[in-house]
Design goal:
13% strand, 6 strands, 7 helices, alpha/beta
């Protein structure tokens, strides 16, 4: 999804619960992911790694001048020879992100829910003072209630909502880098967003796992 499509989507959704909810969620993420406290950890389930969201947030960190949005992608399986920025395994969660940091857990819209072992680690991260956020695509199943109890804030994105998870991730990452004075008209905000997103991004994350 390119910058123009993101901007048009936001225009279509202006005034809806979706845009309000993604902005609120992204605002919590932005305030919580303070680099001095350990930054932002990003993790998916054993069957789903949020590669696209990692790339989107990394681009937003560069474009908006907010280094705290640069995520550490935590992986369930790290292949031999993985580069340093893609070599953080689940043991990275044992140290947490510290106070002033954030953990974002992404649950896909289909597939197995997060396992008990992952939820236990998330619980430990929360107890260590890290803000826990969850982007729940509805795949949490029976574990959804436990996930909602662990997270400080949850953004539900089930299939029934009419938006696919990748689109929601675009909205969240774009809103996370947003810094708009109160009262600015929407089209002015849209113009600023499109101009900022149109700049060529860095490519520290591969588009897909190898």
């Amino acid at each position: 999804m390119n910058a123009v499509r993101v901007a048009l989507l936001r225009e279509v959704l202006d005034g809806t619960d979706w845009l309000r909810d993604t902005r609120r969620f992204a605002g919590t993420l932005r305030r919580s992911a303070r680099s001095r406290g350990g930054g932002l950890l990003l993790v998916g389930t054993a069957e789903y790694e949020p590669w696209h969201l990692a790339a989107h947030l990394d681009e937003e960190a560069a474009r908006s001048g907010r280094p705290e949005l640069h995520p550490t992608l935590v992986r369930h399986r790290v292949p031999p020879g993985a580069p340093a920025h893609l070599a953080a395994g689940l043991e990275r969660l044992d140290g947490g992100a510290g106070r002033g940091g954030a953990l974002l857990l992404v649950v896909p819209q289909a597939g197995p829910p997060p396992g008990e072992a992952l939820l236990e680690r998330v619980d430990g991260v929360r107890r260590g003072g890290t803000t826990v956020l969850a982007l729940d695509g509805g795949g949490a199943g029976a574990g959804g209630e436990e996930l909602r109890a662990l997270a400080h804030e949850v953004l539900p994105a089930p299939v029934s909502a009419g938006l696919d998870l990748d689109t929601v991730q675009h909205l969240v990452s774009a809103a996370a880098g947003e810094d708009v004075p109160p009262g600015r008209r929407f089209r002015d905000r849209l113009s600023r967003l499109a101009a900022r997103l149109a700049a060529p991004p860095p490519e520290p994350y591969p588009r897909e796992p190898w």
